[in-house]
Write a structure and sequence with these properties.
Elements: H1 9-21, H2 25-40, H3 47-61, E1 65-68, E2 79-83, E3 86-94, H4 99-104, H5 112-117, H6 121-141, E4 149-155, H7 173-184, E5 192-197, E6 214-218, E7 229-234, H8 244-253
Parallel strand pairs: 3-4, 4-5
Antiparallel strand pairs: 1-2, 2-3, 5-7, 6-7
Helix pairs in contact: 1-3, 2-3, 6-7
């Protein structure tokens, strides 16, 4: 195993905890590959490896038995989790800002100063547009799974361009939740979507109304160990559903 130390003590501690807890051969093989990625590449290039480790650690902390699934010729989910005898799978994916995506998408061509003059719905729409595209891609890959599947989406930076964080209006989580519920029903392969936004600010709630299928937790800036926003959207039309206890465990860990 490559013994070079990756940057960031948090990811090292998470990896070490998983290496002890996930002691089966397949998990150990996958963890060795992830260690190599986070050791060799900058954080941005190794974002997928970071997200896989962070998601697995989050679920282990929530009380699930977690195992990594080795990549194979046929695309598989990244993690297999157990709550007692009930099993579900987890597919981890990352959405990052890319200049290519910005140029190709008419919905995200505005510059930051133009965005500020336009509707503040721009950011939620841009994020949901990217998320919907990724969900459709992953749904095709996981079409044959006959068990609940949690799609864990990590957003390490702001996926709508090069604007500075202070240029980005806080996200309206009520509106984002409503849009997310509107798109998740189109992908019955997924039991739920766990959306983790590391740097995006959240708008203060204008009213106490919440959408029943969506739970979210926000944190103030200044603590890089925790994401600013975690949001769990449960799919009411999923082919296979997470149990009430599984959902409770995830929500409590959020």
């Amino acid at each position: 195993m490559n013994l070079r130390q990756p940057k960031g003590d948090l990811i090292i501690r998470q990896w070490q905890a998983l290496a002890k807890a996930c002691d089966d051969g397949e998990s150990q093989t996958r963890l060795a590959i992830l260690w190599d990625h986070i050791s060799r590449f900058p954080v941005r290039q190794a974002a997928s490896a970071h997200a896989e480790i962070e998601t697995a650690y989050f679920l282990a902390q929530a009380g699930f038995s977690v195992a990594f699934l080795e990549a194979s010729g046929g695309r598989t989910a990244d993690l297999e989790c157990y709550e007692g005898t009930h099993r579900f799978f987890v597919e981890v994916t990352v959405i990052q800002s890319t200049q290519g995506a910005i140029r190709k998408s008419p919905a995200v061509r505005l510059q930051p100063h133009q965005i500020l003059e336009s509707s503040d719905e721009f950011f939620e729409q841009a994020l949901v547009k990217r998320l919907l595209s990724r969900m459709a891609e992953k749904a095709r890959q996981l079409e044959r799974y006959c068990a609940p599947v949690l799609l864990a989406v990590s957003v390490p930076d702001l996926p709508w361009g090069k604007g500075r964080p202070q240029d980005i209006p806080p996200l309206d989580l009520q509106r984002l939740a409503a849009m997310l519920v509107g798109v998740v029903v189109d992908v019955p392969q997924f039991s739920a979507i766990l959306l983790t936004l590391w740097k995006a600010p959240a708008q203060e709630l204008r009213n106490p109304i919440r959408i029943r299928q969506v739970t979210w937790v926000t944190r103030p800036p200044g603590n890089p160990r925790d994401p600013r926003i975690r949001m769990l959207a449960v799919n009411p039309v999923a082919r296979y559903r997470l149990s009430s206890q599984e959902l409770k465990s995830i929500k409590e860990e959020m």
